[in-house]
Structures are given as C-alpha cells and as structure tokens.
Amino acid sequence: MKEDIGVSSQKWRVDYDYIKTMGMKIVEGRNFSTDMASDSSVTIINKTMAEKLGLKDPLGQRIVNGWETWTVVGMIDDFNFESMKQDVGALCLVLGNNTSTIVAVKIKTTNTKSVLSYISTVWKDFAPDQPIRYTFLDESFANMYADVQHTGTIFTSFAALAIIIACLGLFALSAFMAEQRNKEIGIRKVLGASVSGITTMLSKDFVKLVIISIVLASPIAYWAMTKWLQDFAYRIPISWWMIAVAGLTAIVIALITISFQSIKAAVANPVKSLRTE
Predict the structure, then answer these.
(1) Do β-strands 26-29 and 10-14 pair in parallel, antiparallel, or remain unpaired?
(2) Are 74 and 28 in contact (CB under 8 A)?
(3) What is the pLDDT of residues 172-213, one digit of tens each?
(4) What's the burial of 242, exposed, middle or buried (CB within 10 Å: 0-12/13-18/19+)?
(5) Which runs of consecutive H residues, i.e. helices, occur in the chain?
(6) Which of 226, 229, 232, 236 is nearest to 86 (CA)?
C-alpha cells in the first residue's frame, strides 16, 4: 500500500544513463527508462534513505518534498558522494535537464598532454562557442582532504622538532651527569665493575624519567586523538598497542641519545678520573 512520506534529503537531477554510467548497483526495482513517460515523476533512492524512512519495501512508496511528489521505482546501494569525513547520507535521484554540459572521460596517464589536446579538438566540434574547462578527478579528491594532509604535516614537523630538542637536552644532561660521577665511575671500574654495568647504572635514571613522562602523556594523547577522530565518520580504533609502540619508541630514542656518553664514561681509563691534581 502506498503512503505519503515527508522527508528532507539530498536530491540529484540526472539523465537516463547516469546510474549505468557511474556504475551504481541497483539492489531493488529498476533503472529509469526512456520508454516510460511517467518516469518524470519517479525516483530512485539509496539504502540509507530507505532505512531512515523505515521502508522495508520501498518500491511503490511516494516521497513528498514540499510541492513535489515522486514514486520510488528503484533502490541503489550506498556509495560515498561527499567527503569521507561524513556518513553516507540519504539520497534520491530524479530525472531532470542539466543546463550545463559535463563530460567525464577516463584516460591513461601515459600521454596526458596529447589526450587533452585530442579532447579539446573533439569538444570544439560539438561546442565551438564554448571554451573547454577541465579538472582532474584525483586532484578534486585530493583537495577534499588537503586540510587533513596539512594538519598531518604540521603535527609531524612539530613532533620531529620536539624529539630533536628533547634529544639535545638528554645528550647534554647525560654528559653533565657522567662528568659529575666521573670519580665514582673510576672507583667502580677499579673494583671490577663491567662496562655494561656502568652503562646501565648511568642510563636507568634517565629511563625512569622517560617512563614517568610516558605514563603522564599517554592519557592526554589518547584523549586528544579520540577527540580529533570524532570529526571523521570513518576512523580507525585507537588500540593500546599504539600507545605502547609510541612509548617503546621514546625509550629507544632516549637510550640511543644517552648511550654515547654512558659508554664513553664506562670505557674511560679510571686512572685519569682518579688522578688528583
């Protein structure tokens, strides 16, 4: 039984071959037909629209949008027609005339210049008084996510700068600590301490500080990443191992930074460090 349903959705006016040309999959009903004059008042909706309307059997239902009414004759599978930041929205397709001429051409990128020249020649034969304006689809998609890429570049640059500054600080601090404990290291070596033991002794205090910083920073990082990902409809889950890998990487970087001074102090001649002036 047909019923009137009021709904607000995105509406596209298309031609008869649009669904076939764009490779859309009709899951129920039929496509628009040139043999049926009544198709000027019918519509094809997507799955999301049927779900939002609560239609288990959408075929034959009538959709009302203000003063216009369409009868559903088909349903297509969902596809992303906007940015991936957003969920697939409700969509209905209706027949209509487009005042502008839009042509989509799939080309091989081996000789783009000659292909564009040929397309321009063909265009002039059909529309000699209208200049051709073209854009590349991959560039259009890239522009949709340009802000995300810029944000990623900025965060990466600041993260690299922060790591470099932290490594310089650790390097200077490890050199200072090794110099302060120079005589202690000499005495330990005389008493039989190994190079690995002295290196571990000098490194463990720094590792403790890094671990404390990881414990303090992890909840803040998790909250910030979760907050940022909420702006995207399609996002990856934040797992514990991501935080663990980041923490382990920080420890490894810290060890590499301070190991030079620690090993240098451990292999030094104890006679020089114990010599009195």
Answers:
(1) unpaired
(2) yes
(3) 888 888 777 777 777 777 777 777 787 888 788 888 888 999
(4) middle
(5) 18-21, 47-53, 112-126, 137-144, 146-180, 182-190, 195-229, 240-266, 270-274
(6) 232
